[in-house]
């Protein structure tokens, strides 16, 4: 298992602090990029099926993207600073069954991105 160096950890923290100022826009761009790479991923989101609202203007996608982005980044910071994730138990209890009922599998969280395939971990 590889671990972050102190320098890498500080880069992640400083990046997150910089991104927080525009998290809503960045999180939406993140999901739009996922749908660009894997268009079928849109079908995993019930609020997108049959919607005529353009993705970049969809209020439900904007809210979902922001929540996912914010939770993920805050979790990473907690893991680094505290050594554990302090998500509320109700959050986990709510998310897991909802994702399972939607048919989400581990493989759905991996999106291949050719320009990142050469990056070393």
Automatic annotation (TrEMBL):
PROSITE patterns xrefs: GLOBIN (PS01033), PLANT_GLOBIN (PS00208)
Catalytic activity annotation: Fe(III)-heme b-[protein] + nitric oxide + H2O = Fe(II)-heme b-[protein] + nitrite + 2 H(+)
One Gene Ontology MF term: heme binding
Cofactors demanded by this protein: heme b
InterPro entries documented for this protein: Globin, Globin-like_sf, Globin/Proto, Leghaemoglobin-like, Leghaemoglobin_Fe_BS
Listed name of the protein: Non-symbiotic hemoglobin
Family affiliation: Belongs to the plant globin family.
Alphabetically ordered keywords of this record: Heme, Iron, Metal-binding
Pfam family, one: Globin
Residues of the Globin domain: 3-121
